[in-house]
Automatic annotation (TrEMBL):
It is found in: Cytoplasm. PANTHER family: CYCLIC DI-GMP PHOSPHODIESTERASE PDEF, SIGNALING PROTEIN YKOW. The lineage of its organism: Bacteria, Pseudomonadati, Pseudomonadota, Gammaproteobacteria, Lysobacterales. SMART domains: cNMP, EAL. Residues 1-106 form the Cyclic nucleotide-binding domain. It holds the Pfam family cNMP_binding. Coiled coil: none annotated. Residues 137-385 form the EAL domain. It comes from Dokdonella soli. Gene3D superfamilies: EAL domain, Jelly Rolls. This is EAL domain-containing protein.
Amino acid sequence: MQPYSELFKTGDIIFAEGDAPSGAFLIESGRIEISTTQFGERRVLGELGPGMLLGEMAVLDESPRTATARALTNCRLTPIDAAQFAERLAAADPVVRALLMSQLTRYRSALATLTGDGTGRPSVSLAQPDDAHAFDKIRLESELRAALERKELEVRLQPIEEIISGRIAGYEALVRWQHPERGAVSPAEFIRLAEETSLILPVGDYILERVCDMLGELQRRGRKPLPFIAVNLSARQLDDAQLVERILAHLRKRDLPPDRLKLEITESLVLDYARIADLLERCHAVGMHVALDDFGTGFSNLGPLLTLSFDQIKLDGSFVKALDRQRGVAVVGVVVAMARALDCDLVAEGVETREQREILHQLGCRYAQGWLVGKPVPLDHVLKA
């Protein structure tokens, strides 16, 4: 069994240049000298102390030790098995992993030059298959930043129908990106990329401002009643204490009623009850409505509906697909009744057939959204309708 910690006395060699990398160490106490051989002469590279890692680079790329570690004082070290590094490296973000391996390659190259060893090339056996895409991911992030600055992201509107009247009551704003070289980039790809970085905040602001412009244009064209437009919020946007005030400023600038911009929060985000409750309170105080999106996608429980007063529930399209079965009809009927009891409007997503729409109508669902109603289109298509 591997010991919890190992003791080394002053002068002990912990590992020598050329040794196989059996593992690394966390220095608990003491000082360690790192040295290498430069053109046949010993050269001290530096010292390491408590709280620092020792020997991790050779473990990461499975290369022989490129330096010697000697205890300058009595030292206590905690061994770290190579498998621990391998597991964490495999689970790391591919961009972070690729950057780490790039830096390690540079270090090995510089060390080989320093020591006069032309064979000092690292292996990359710990790299994962998707590492090859990591730099493409970095490139795409840079291109997304540029597209945002050049206002190349397009906001399209997918219609939401009031089933009983057949009129288009509102729209959901969906962002699209037509890359000049890659063509259409999947929203799932670039939105996920934006959410992994701080980019989701400027992307979110871009969409909100563009939606307010669209509402302003619909109002200027005399569209009555003025439809609502729903905008999806990300987790990072929910952390923004000034979000509601900034939205209000956009609406007031265009003389728009607050209830025409609807905010949508995906079901997976409502587990933070306190944060969502605060947002709902601030929105309701100024007349803005908030919808619970993707209801029934796997995170479902009724707890949020007991404590959070959403104005609308959006039923995930998987339930609409199940309307061809009696059990599916029964479940959707229960959700419709629940929404009515909670004084919430219900929007059924993913409506693709007239049969689905008719069943929803019979069950008392108020709104339908999906390809049967209409696909996401630019604003000019909406203005011509």
